[in-house]
Amino acid sequence: MDLVEISPNANPPVAKIIDWGKYQYQKMKEQQKNRAKSKQSELKQMRFGLKIGSGDLEIKLRKIRAFLAEGHKVRIQIFYRGREMAHKELGYDMINKIIALLEDDAVVEQKPMMAGRNLSITIRSK
Questions:
Q1: What is the CATH code for 43-125?
Q2: Would you say the pTM of this structure is higher than 0.70?
């Protein structure tokens, strides 16, 4: 058993007689539990082709809304195949359409950016 000063600034100072090893072990376990509870938001990713159908688009948008509701950020990626690279404006049009459909749920965090054959944008919940 050890005499441990709990709060030295109190008037009078508070001290307890405790088993120091057990006390340290309990503090460490409590910190681990707190770390497990505090869930960091992840960056989820959703990929779209330029020729996606309206039904498939709605399903993917529903999934994006679910990610946003959980507090995650979402990177939306439009990928170009073959000669689609000659018509990059179609990708920007699709990005604008997706943003318009998600404007009630999301805010654009990163503007559209080309990286190789991918056009990507990052959004987060309002």
A1: 3.30.110.10
A2: no
